[in-house]
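Today's session is about reading a structure prediction critically. Students often jump straight to the picture, but the first step is always the sequence itself: look for stretches that repeat, for charged clusters, for runs of hydrophobic residues. Only then move on to the predicted structure, which in these notes is written as discrete structure tokens rather than atom positions. Here is the chain we will use throughout the hour.
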Amino acid sequence: MNPSQNIMVTQGTFQDSTPSYYILSQLNANTGQRNWGTYLGPNATEYGVEFCGIEADDQGVYILGFDGYENSSGYFGTLGAYKPQKPGDADLFLSKFSPTGRRVWSTYIGTPNPEGGIRNAGLSLHNGKLCFTGIQVFSSHNIATPGAYQDVPPSVGTSDNYVNPFFGMMSTDGAMEWISYYGGSNAGYVSNAAHVWQSPQFMNDGSLILFGAGSATEGITTPNAAFPTCVAQSYGASSYLVKFNPNSLGVNESQNNSDIKLYDNPNDGKFSLEGKALNKIGLKLNKTDMSGRNIYTQNLPASPKVEVDLSHQLTSGKYLIRVKSPEKEIYNSSFIVK
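Below is the predicted structure for this chain, in token form.
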């Protein structure tokens, strides 16, 4: 459309007068009539913005996008947001609009390295949580949050062939919960960055599915999966499908009312559990991978300190343990095996 013709916006919305190449509109699902429309973008004369996903609930509309416009001057950041200023030349942004077309909050997601996303399939919404995905070129700046599932870049290099996929969780109130990489040491070394991508989808039970593609031949699959090894690659990349248990993600997954502590973490598969709550008879220890699949179960002795040796069973990676009594779960935590 011609942005000089103000026919696609309605008064009282976020941007009802300054033209842009982009329009956000809400239509009545029953009649097809427009409820409201607003311009969305910093300038009507230059391109540089792409949209990677849109979701909605009764609280508003959520848009994930990519800002590669050099003169956007923080357009996609709001005061008090997670990142109100643009960190680099190219970054993701995530914005929330009210049911009446007013912008509620907007934040950048990125580093001084270039970040981007997959068009139209990079955002999923479930029960007040927004999962977003993206890719990061180079690895000189870490986008992951400390303690996340994978908090260091898996593919290290300074050329634009090194592309690391990442995913993260933000509340619908705009609070960043965590950001994690996903993949092995050669996660993103490809001849074309367009071949590295991932798309999120929440399931009804809150579990998270990631469907993507990359060049990693390790750090992707789990034992006993349908295809635990990479069998073929097209254009230097292979597709993958990953499921995360809703309780296995985040920076601090341990939400416990007991005094149990786990140490050392990270470890080599040998660790200790300590706490008065372990004195109870009939406790069981369950260990799962990050998809929630149970790998190991053992009965725990009634003792305030228990030594656990799983070094002969575990490979490098992140795992989740749960301590359960006959009545309920009393402790859960993640740990990393180096």
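Discussion point for the tutorial: Confidence is low (pLDDT under 50) at residues 251-255.
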